[in-house]
Amino acid sequence: MAIDDLHSPLLNREPDIDEITNCGQFVKEAITENKKLWYLAGPAIFTAIAQYSLGGMTQVFAGQLTTLELDAVSTENMVIAGLAFGIMLGMGSALETLCGQAYGAKQLHMLGVYMQRSWIILNAMCICLLPIYIWATPILKFFGQNQEIADLAGEFSLYMIPQLFAYGFNFPLQKFLQAQSKVMAMAWVSGVALVFHVFLCWLLILKLQLGLPGAAAALNISWWIVVLGQFAYIYMGYCPGAWTGFSWSAFRDLGAFARLSIASAIMMCLEFWYYMLLVVLAGQLKNPQIAVAAISICTNLNGWEIMIFLGFNAAISVRISNELGAGRPRAAKFSILVVVLSSALIGIAFLVLVLALRNVYALPFTNSAEVADAVSKLAVVFAFTLLLNSVQPVLTGVAVGAGWQWLVAYVNLGCYYIVGLPLGFLLGSQFDMGVKRIFRLKTSNA
């Protein structure tokens, strides 16, 4: 679909839900809406998977070294970088509301100003997060992580500080481009970065045998390729009207912008931090290296699946904010219905796939038979987790598009932290039900 097709009279008209009286009319309207959603969601899904795969592929190559090094990379990737990723993605999500509604209201000049304000706030937050990277080892040990894993993960965290600041620039760039439906540019940049990253990992980790420093160098370089590639696209004039250059206006109203950014961050972080704490809790079980490796593989694969639905999250957020900004609430409601149905069908497909491949899906990540066996035993719980996670990120996108970040934050707080983690820790450690019981709590919360 060409870019102009998205704004054609057929696709830009508001669905008349009140006149849908039979299945045929519903299917016709749903097909039209799906064209809009997939135009945005397809490249956004590819972008999310490609960028998430930068860390995932690093874990795959680290798994060819030793179980301890896999645990170290997984712990840094899921806990330390996961903490930063959640905060940066959440704070950057404020732009989905602001840029999306500004674009729908034809106030294009504000998109560049909003992005620059987000850069200022997110990079200030990066400086605040630096101590977590610097003192990652004692922090992990304080939360009960295995000493060997904590020591090596802390060393790897120091190497990954450049990635932190890449996050601070990347997510505002993404939301700026998404609001204008410039999703193909993001997909191309992320795809090139992923291909180059795989080559770098092979060269630095396996060929030159640089171990964890090589893994860190590959990951840092690849993330900055993503950032610079997206900015080059914008700077070369492919976003006319939205990017008019650097402006002092970016320093105005930072307080109000920061409040919305913080609300968005809390909403997203409460979920991302849950995965982080699952890895930490697994380090307190019997055979911690096996437990951490098993749950890290499952959460890594779960993360890849979530990236697909984060693509839908981005698409529905843009659709909702654009339609509300243009004063078309019925189109927004119909978009919600269509995207929930589509994502649920994809979730069912993932459930079937995991159950069919239950004995082999861990093999690319590890050469340990014990770890592969532990992952295989999680297949049923893991499959249902994927199914339930197919809808939840999409509904979060609805909330972001409408500006309801605080509501989702309260829901996530209650489900994940008041119910999920305490019960998971109790069943996993005190009742000796192991990593399977801890991971099952993600299913119940989803």
From TrEMBL:
GO terms for molecular function: antiporter activity; xenobiotic transmembrane transporter activity. One of its GO terms (cellular component) is membrane. Its main location: membrane. It comes from the Eukaryota. PANTHER family: MULTIDRUG RESISTANCE PROTEIN. Belongs to the multi antimicrobial extrusion (MATE) (TC 2.A.66.1) family. This is Protein DETOXIFICATION.
